[in-house]
Structures are given as structure tokens and as C-alpha cells.
Amino acid sequence: MLGYYVRMAWKSLRRTPGLTALMVSGIALGISACIVTLTVYHAMSSNPIWWKNNVLYAVTLDPWGASHRSSTYRGPDLLTYRDATYLLSSRIPRRKTLLTSIEGALAGAPDQHRPLPVNTEATTADFFRMFAVPFLYGGPWSAAADAGPDPVIVLSRHENEKLFGGIDSVGRTLLWNKRRFRVVGVLDHWNPQPRFYDLTANGGGAFARPANTFIPFQWGPTLQIWPSGTMECQRTGPGSSYAQLENADCGWIAMWVELPDAAARRHFLAAMNAYAAEQRSAGRFQGPLNNHLWRVGAWLRLHHVVSERSRLLVALSFALLAVCLTNTVGILLAKFLRTAPLAGVRRALGASRRQIFAQHLIEAATLSVLGAALGLLLGVGGLKGVRVLYLHSNNAYGKLAHFDALGIAWALALAVLATLLAGVYPAWRAGRVAPAAHLKSQ
Fold first, then answer.
1. Greatest CA span in the chain, whole angstroms?
2. Which of 1, 19, 6 is nearest to 338 (CA)?
């Protein structure tokens, strides 16, 4: 029976090619706009490490003690050096890591004629396991290398291809800032978007690419290299010497911990609050306790990673789809009522209202499938256009406008939505046709 209805729908659509093309184009336009905006919105709002959302936490402490806090005040996002190093000594988390961005330059690779500037993440060994970072060659350094610190370095796949032609470079030595480092690992493709673990990164913020190189965190203090990322200070700056930076109430270190269960989370938060209470005697943490552990999803929402403009674009695209479907409803209703005599004859020959409804609904569904197919092609073209438009900028839209299987799923879902919204009422009206009036007119 379904095949018969599909043949009837196809014949009906071929009898009015102009109207069919108009309706298919309208549905395709609305669906393509939704695919483009939904793809970008999903990429911006998604949690790149969703399977660890309940065990990974960003750590924030508020040592400033502001006396007049607004309703929107949330305290600093980054930790001071003394607070970060103290919390790093805790044995409560299963894993914990510190990270900050510093600038560097690599030299000493074969056939390398000039130093290569790189953005370096100074971090700890747990960083790679906590954030499920994949390795192409080798692996992360050991916890003992953090304590040294040992002169070890991890390269991104891109940097390894640039310096060593993509071969296994583990065990090779390089000069990082004129100091010899040994390569212990090379990352595989890894580019979590948004860059949840460091939303304050320079050169793109939440949608910046990961660092080119990774070294043990303590190399920053050992070589007294100032951080290149964001620095949060309440009143006075960090001073001019590195010793002043280490003792200043300026946040420049991000900290994440992995807590396996709710009990570990309570214990670590209690340890944070106890530390804040101890620091009161030194004149710090004078305000109400404002220490937090943020899950990845909450951390992204806290920083408004998804802009209001992105939400507005999604709303406008669905408004466009609604306009297109409203026009399609009107055209279908007029077409079905014009062919009411044929439906009346079928009713007189024994067809039920349900069968007439099903026949017309299948015709609307065929229109929606054709519109979704065309909308899918237009959506792919639209995403490519967005990438070309923002090719040479740091705008997040250009980085995230990539078509994937999710776009196909949205196209199918929107086709079902279009069938229900555009086809049900006209099909219902066609099924309510009284056959007697049309038989008399024939």
C-alpha cells in the first residue's frame, strides 16, 4: 500500500512542476539555514570530553576579599602561584594538573636554518591522561620529571612534521629557548573545541588551537619565564621580578583536578576552604568564601562560550523555516482542495478517510524528503562558504563550520518536522471531503 501511495504522490507532484519546485525550494532553504546554524551552535556548545564531565573540575580560589561585590561577581578564574602549588600537593585528587602558556622557540632540528617560534604549554604529567590526549609516538613524561624538572618535551603532530618530517622523533633532542630538551612524545591529531581546559588562551580564546609544545610546569619558575596568557590582578600588578610574580595576588595558572566520586569532591572542596581559612591570618581571603569546583559543562556555561549572537542566529533560522513551512501549508492546502473531486470519487468507491489522509500525507512527506535532500546540499555549501568567509580570521564560525554526520541527522529530523507541520493539516482537510457534493458536480 505504501508503494501505491508513493506512486500517487509522485504523479501528483509531476502534474504541477512549478508548485512542486516552489515548495521543495522553500523547505530546502529553511532546512539549509537550520543545518548551518545548528552545526556551528552544536560545535560551540558541546562538551569535548563529555564522558568525564562528572570527574573533571576546574579549580577557582578567591583571595581578593572584595568588600563590594556585584551580583555578577564570580572571582578570578586563575590561581596565584602560591595557591596553585599548595593545592597541587594535595593527595585527594586521582590526578591534578597546572597549566600556563609561555612563549618559546625551537632549534636544532635537522635542516633547520632558523629558530621556530612556538606556543608552549607549561603543565604537569597528569595533563595528558586527564584530558585523554592521544599520542602518535611515545607518551607523556613521568611524575618524577615534574619534580626535577627534567628537560623533556612533547611535540604536537604538526610541529613534528615541520621539524622531523613526521617520523618518530622520540629520543631526539631540540633546543627550546636555547636549552636542550629531549622529545618523549608526539601527539596525534588533537584539537578539542572549545578549548575547555584553557579558555583564556591568547589567539582565539575558547576556540584557539592547542599549544605546539608541552614542557614540565616548573621550567617556567626555573628559567623565570613570564607567562604569555591572561593575568588577573585585583589592584596592584605582579611587580617587575619573577620573585614578585610568585608572591603576588595575581592569577595566571589554571588548575584542573580529577575527583572520582562525590566524596572526593567534598573532601577537596573542604581542603580548599581550610586553606583559605589559614590564609586569613596573612591578610588574604578576607571576604566570604568564594572557592569552587566547576564541572566542564558548567565551566563552559560560566564563560558564555556560546555567544548570544549564535543563539540569535539559530532562532532566526528556525523562524525562516517556520515561514517556509507556513507558505508550504497554504500551497498544499490549495492543491489538495483543488483535487478534492478525485478524493470524493475514491471515497465513493470505498476508500476510508484514513486512507485519503495517508495518501496526502505521503505526498507531503515526499516533498519534505526532496526539500531535505536539497537543503542538505545547500547546507554543505553554506558551511563551506562560512569557512571561506572566515578563512584568514580567528572567528570561531570559520573554525567550527565543518559538515559531519550530525548534519545528516538534523536534515532527517527537520524533514520529519516539515512533514508534520506542513502536511498534517492539509491532509486532514483533504480527508474530511464529503464525497456526495463532488459526485453531483461530476
1. 100
2. 19
